[in-house]
TrEMBL record:
The active site is at H73. It comes from Agrocybe chaxingu. The keyword Metal-binding applies. One of its GO terms (biological process) is hydrogen peroxide catabolic process. Its EC number is 1.11.1.-. Its main location: secreted. It is an enzyme of class 1 (oxidoreductase). This is Peroxidase. Binds 1 heme b (iron(II)-protoporphyrin IX) group per subunit. Binds 2 calcium ions per subunit. It is found in: Secreted. The keyword Heme applies. Keywords: Calcium, Disulfide bond, Glycoprotein, Heme, Hydrogen peroxide, Iron, Metal-binding, Oxidoreductase, Peroxidase, Secreted, Signal.
Length: 373
């Protein structure tokens, strides 16, 4: 009797300690993983499948780039004023036959073709993944509509230096395809880009934060003759090299001549988007841009926070379940970053006068050439 009373006192004290110390209760899943909500258990095998089949063994390469870009193109189809789509609702997968025809979605058809068979293999059931009330052809009913955002979080985690992104489960079925002209294009002006982001509820600071994604990115469509040209010289890493290299005085194009949406780049084999360069120079965004350089922790925190908002645009978060703990923990990169060989501060097109430009050293060696991804 005394022992039972003692045991219950110990348990109560433990519960009180956990509550006051903010210790979160963990559930053990059949797979052996731990999570804070048992609804998330079903996702661990999905994460393994994505890592194996989409990201070729947890790699930071094309598959991961595709997944991150797709989550943006899905989510930004939204306006606080209505009439621009359901936001981060998976419509880019479910209504891919409509959305992939939009000009800004060049390459999306190919990405969807790669991702779709993998998502179908998940065979998940439950509110998030199977909704018989949708008017979607039976081929697509098993498609997890959150999968586009889970894949982005998992793919990004494969790039050393990235933050561990959030993932929220439980989106209702998308009602319709997002309309055309919601996705910014590299030919757009900064005003058009910022207006589009603002309409979706995202600030200029968040727009710059989201462009950290271009540190793990390359192009196929802006100049199709040089497919896979990366946007920075360390495309395999989530570092701030992209923000530095966009500011280097541009002198060349990676292919033959300029193309729509392309700006002169400083490094052989590297593509610079016109929109990225304009964002780096505009008074509304230039200091946010410069603040990222060699500031790994700040960049990670900014990107994580902006992605957390972007990936639930248009969703009622109170109905979603936080399954962020299914996202793998990324490998660390602490820097410092350096100027590519032969470059220094004299090559920088400085656009933010408010703060001194960060002091960086230069990598040794001859002028660099960046290889395609
Ligand atoms: C001003 C806004 C943006 C513009 C104009 C823009 C434009 C582009 C363009 C033109 C490409 C090359 C596509 C190709 O030719 O294959 C690209 C690639 C990419 N973008 Fe953006 N982007 C913007 C914002 C974002 C955001 C907010 C994200 C994610 C949060 C993102 C993630 C990516 C990724 C990961 C790639 C590489 C895709 C791949 O390799 O398939 N972009 N972007």
């Amino acid at each position: 009797m005394a022992i039972a009373r003692l045991a219950s006192i110990v348990l109560l004290s433990l519960a009180a300690y956990q509550a006051t110390a903010g210790v979160t209760r963990q559930v053990k899943c059949p797979s052996g993983h731990f999570t804070t909500n048992e609804k998330c258990c079903q996702l661990f095998p999905v994460v393994d499948l994505l890592q194996h089949e989409l990201f070729h063994g947890s790699k930071c390469e094309k598959g991961a780039h595709h997944a991150l870009r797709l989550s943006f193109h899905d989510a930004i189809g939204f306006s606080l004023n209505g009439g621009k789509g359901g936001g981060a609702d998976g419509s880019i997968l479910i209504f891919h036959d409509v959305e992939e025809k939009y000009h800004a979605n060049g390459g999306v058809a190919e990405i969807v073709r790669q991702q779709m068979p993998v998502f179908k293999k998940t065979n998940l059931t439950g509110g998030d993944l199977y909704d018989p009330s949708t008017k979607i052809s039976s081929t697509f009913v098993k498609l997890p509509r959150s999968s586009v955002h889970l894949a982005a979080a998992v793919g990004t985690s494969n790039c050393p230096g990235s933050p561990r992104l959030e993932f929220w489960l439980g989106r209702p079925a998308p009602a319709a395809a997002a309309p055309d002209k919601t996705i910014p294009e590299p030919t757009d002006s900064v005003t058009d880009i910022l207006n589009r982001f603002a309409e979706a509820g995202l600030s200029p600071r968040e727009a710059v934060a989201l462009l950290a994604s271009h540190t793990m990115a390359d192009q196929d469509r802006v100049d199709p003759t040089v497919e896979g040209t990366p946007f920075d010289s360390t495309v395999e890493r989530f570092d701030s090299q992209f923000f530095l290299e966009v500011l280097l005085n541009g002198t060349m194009y990676p292919g033959h001549g300029s193309h729509e949406g392309e700006a002169l780049s400083a490094i052989k084999g590297e593509m610079r988007l016109k929109s990225d360069f304009l964002m780096s120079q505009d008074p509304r965004t230039a200091c946010f841009w410069q603040a990222m350089i060699n500031n790994q922790k700040y960049m990670m925190a900014e990107f994580k926070a902006a992605m957390a908002r972007m990936q639930v645009l248009g969703q009622d978060v109170s109905t979603l379940t936080d399954c962020s703990d299914v996202v793998p923990v990324p490998r660390v990169f602490n820097g410092p970053i350096k100027y590519p060989p032969s470059f220094s501060e004299k090559d920088i097109v400085i656009a933010c006068a408010e703060t001194p430009f960060p002091s960086l050293s230069t990598q040794p060696g001859p002028p660099p050439t960046v290889s395609p991804v």
